[in-house]
Amino acid sequence: MIAIQTRDLQKHYGSVHALDGLTLAVQAGTIFGFLGPNGAGKSTAIRLLTGLSHPTGGQAWVVGKEININHNVAGRIGYLPEEPAFYGWMTPIEFLDYVASLFGMRAAERKQRVAELLDQVGLKDAGKRRIAGFSRGMRQRLGLAQALINRPEVLFLDEPVSALDPVGRKEVLEMIGKLSGQFTVFMSTHILADVERICDTIGIINHGKLVVEAPQAELLARYTVPAFELECQPGDEARLAALAQSLIAVNWVSSAMVQDNMVRVLVKDVSVARQGLLPLVAQAGMPLRRYEQVVPSLEDIFLQVVNGKDGVA
To answer: Is residue 154's pLDDT more than 60?
Structure first.
């Protein structure tokens, strides 16, 4: 089931094309990481998908309903903006009760739901404190509770942890990660490590265009470098160089480059290399400090596709 879908979605501000033909599909129940540099169009896309802005062209559907075509999906989605705003004189209990009333919840249901969410986001003990005295991390937690108040089918998060300290970011990300399978989460961010940590599927946007979209595991596999790194103990560099020379003669080895006390071996067939490389090392009597197949990070992939070296339209 597709929870979010866009087709050639556009948003122009005069000559500036904030979104320039965005086409994507997000499976229900996944945590979708919408990744891109600042100014790429991430926030613009979320504003269009939540109905807060109107597109210049194209179409978008959320929970099966085309947005801005006489369909109000507000009751079926949740939204946490990058900088959530609150009434500082309210307490979290009062604020969440007010938001719940906007969705037509009755008093008994509101009381129960507010208590559940304050416990879920770790604000149970702060429920009667004034929001004006909250830290940024506490405000983000309250914003997440607000976005979940109506049990949404789709949750939109715009840079939910970008301004938090490492501890606050870790805690909020753990809360978001626990939502996997319960809701569809559409999370925009420019923080690569956050996406790598909790997202099932990743879409990378640049200059208003979707550059690539794929499950995280598939994306990592697609850009896997056919290389292995062998690191020796200090003092064994001469023996390592001799090993590198012997490896070059192997038919499934493309190259073997020595860098200090490490040799990087590029291979033609990864599966063959996995079986044959270590026996060759053992045969040469070369003790290793580290043996590792090179796996690209999300940062490597991001820089490659954003800089236009991917070849994916």
So the answer is: yes
